[in-house]
Specification:
mainly beta; Rieske Iron-sulfur Protein; seven-stranded mixed sheet; 14% helix; globular
């Protein structure tokens, strides 16, 4: 039992270090609505990473263009590593009033079932969401919104034009 707990803590620490290391990576400004988030190795299964995607938009993109300054948009996202080849990219502003949600904790990244116990919390109003961005509690009208993502040449890409509203309460 103690060994399992030590192993779990070591994995959580490793995930935190990977997430912190990626947060220091300052990608260049992208051009257009398809943005590179980073190498897929930066988002291992069970990880949660906060990132800000910076892109110069040539046309209006719903929900993203509203925050652009001089055509440059900064889009806060939460990248969830489902498996080493499957990712969920959640839009970090909550659907209630737009405050940025943060990871509440990290679960054991080796067990997919344990990921359900990880929640995102809105520090402004207390909304809570599970690891898939589904509504758990608080005044939010729905779960976290999300963007479509895919992998190209080992790099996680996000298409800002494929914005999907979060699941209903």
């Amino acid at each position: 039992m103690k060994r399992a707990a030590v192993n779990a803590l070591a994995l959580i620490a490793l995930a935190a270090v990977v997430g912190f290391g990626f947060s220091l990576y300052n990608p260049p400004v992208s051009e257009g609505a398809v943005v590179a988030v980073g190498p897929v190795a930066s988002f291992p299964a069970g990880s949660i990473t906060e990132a800000v995607l910076t892109t110069k938009l040539s046309s209006s993109v719903p929900r993203v263009s509203a925050n652009a300054v001089d055509g440059i948009a900064e889009v806060p996202v939460l990248v969830v590593g489902i498996t080493d080849a499957e990712f969920l990219v959640l839009y970090a502003p909550d659907p209630h009033l737009g405050c940025r949600v943060r990871p509440a904790s990290l679960a054991d990244p080796t067990a997919y079932g344990d990921l359900e116990g990880v929640a995102f919390i809105n520090p402004c109003h207390g909304e809570m969401y599970d690891i898939a961005g589904r509504y758990v509690g608080g005044p939010s009208p729905r779960g976290l919104d999300r963007f479509e993502s895919y992998v190209t040449d080992g790099v996680l890409m996000v298409d800002l034009t494929t914005f999907t509203f979060g699941p209903s309460r």
